[in-house]
Hints:
Layout: H1 9-30, H2 38-58, H3 63-84, H4 90-122
Helix pairs in contact: 1-2, 2-4, 3-4
Amino acid sequence: xxxxxxxxxxxxxxxxxxxMYFGVIILKPQIHDYNVTVATCLLPTWLLIINxxxxxxYNFSILPLLFVxxxxxxxxxxxxxxxxxxxxxxxxxxxxxxRVLFISWTFFLVGIMLTRVVSYFFV
Length: 123
């Protein structure tokens, strides 16, 4: 684990904010006609940033853990979705699943960023 600050980390901390900003400014008018949201387009970016931070903090990738937790969360969302609707359509559930994934991965990303900041001072 690297305890010292390295300058390329500025990019890692700024990348989520910049990608959200440019996603809303540039991407939103482009995908307005399709059934795609900016959050859906940001999911691969979140995976890259989480992987970069996990390699920087722990020296191994925590993406397998993230995938297992994500599957569990999506199954819980599916259970809740099926109880609420009378007819199940996969396209309608995919919107719900992608929103749940974006929210959970965003919390995971914020948590791993805070872990890195805390590791500057206490490790």
